[in-house]
Write a structure and sequence with these properties.
Blueprint lengths: L8 E4 L5 H12 L3 E6 L2 H13 L3 E6 L7 H13 L4 E4 L14 H29 L2 E6 L12 H21 L4 E8 L5 H5 L9 H11 L11 E4 L9
Parallel strand pairs: 1-2, 1-4, 2-3, 4-5, 5-6, 6-7
Helix pairs in contact: 1-7, 3-4, 4-5
Length: 240
């Protein structure tokens, strides 16, 4: 299938490792120019080298996406290097565990900043570039907690559900402009972090997850917007 991503420019955040890395790799394999970012310079450089070695077009920027000024700097970097920004894949690490009645106000604010406000800031910074061209794809990598809250992960449950509410609303405003906005909600995947945590049970392959993200960012996915896509191997039992 032709995804229509050749020469599109994609910004993928928190993309030196894990599912962000897999998404960047998949987009590059489809011919997109990929701008990747992460806080760790060494891992970021290694990922950039691997994408380039496979024939991909990549530009790496060291950045902490939770810093309020980072979204503007990242978009500026995309424009300086490639002259456009067509796709945003917003990804950020999840907050620590905590039971709902035990977490502090400070912990809640930190989680909301990292997993709600950061994604919104990235989208609002990227959208003007997409609106200029009448085409764009925004994809938020979140968690199955959006669709099925997990006991003991109240911070993730709260912040990610809030992002879903915002994105669902924004997607309606963007639909007439040729811009889609969706959430991808992964279950367990065989990333380095999941392996380090000793998680057991069925796991997806990060490479396959990345291909799902690439499809959502494609031309054929033009009528998929304002929805959550679960990539969880049937782990979520809800009907919605």
């Amino acid at each position: 299938m032709e995804l229509g991503l050749k020469n599109r420019t994609a910004l993928v955040t928190a993309s030196s490792k894990g599912l962000g890395r897999a998404s960047a790799m998949a987009l590059a394999q489809e011919g997109a120019n990929v701008v990747i970012c992460a806080r760790g310079e060494q891992a970021l450089a290694a990922t950039a080298d691997e994408i380039a070695a496979a024939g991909g077009s990549v530009h790496a920027m060291v950045a902490d996406v939770t810093e309020p000024g980072s979204p503007a700097a990242l978009v500026a970097g995309c424009l300086e290097r490639y002259g456009s920004l067509d796709i945003l894949v917003a990804n950020a690490g999840g907050p620590p565990p905590g039971r709902a009645l035990d977490v502090s106000n400070e912990q809640l604010l930190d989680a909301l900043d990292a997993n709600l406000l950061t994604s919104i800031r990235l989208a609002k910074e990227a959208l003007p570039q997409m609106r200029k061209r009448g085409w764009g794809r925004v994809c938020f990598i979140t968690s199955i907690t959006v669709r099925q809250p997990i006991p003991g992960l109240s911070l993730s449950n709260t912040a990610r559900a809030g992002l879903w509410g915002w994105a669902k609303t924004a997607a309606q405003d963007l639909a007439p402009e040729g811009i889609t906005m969706n959430l991808v909600c992964p279950g367990l995947h065989a990333t380095d972090r999941v392996k380090e945590l000793g998680s057991t049970g069925p796991m997806g392959e990060p490479e396959d997850f990345g291909k799902v993200v690439a499809f959502l960012c494609s031309e054929p996915a033009a009528f998929i917007s304002g929805t959550t896509i679960g990539v969880d191997g049937a782990a979520v039992m809800g009907l919605l």
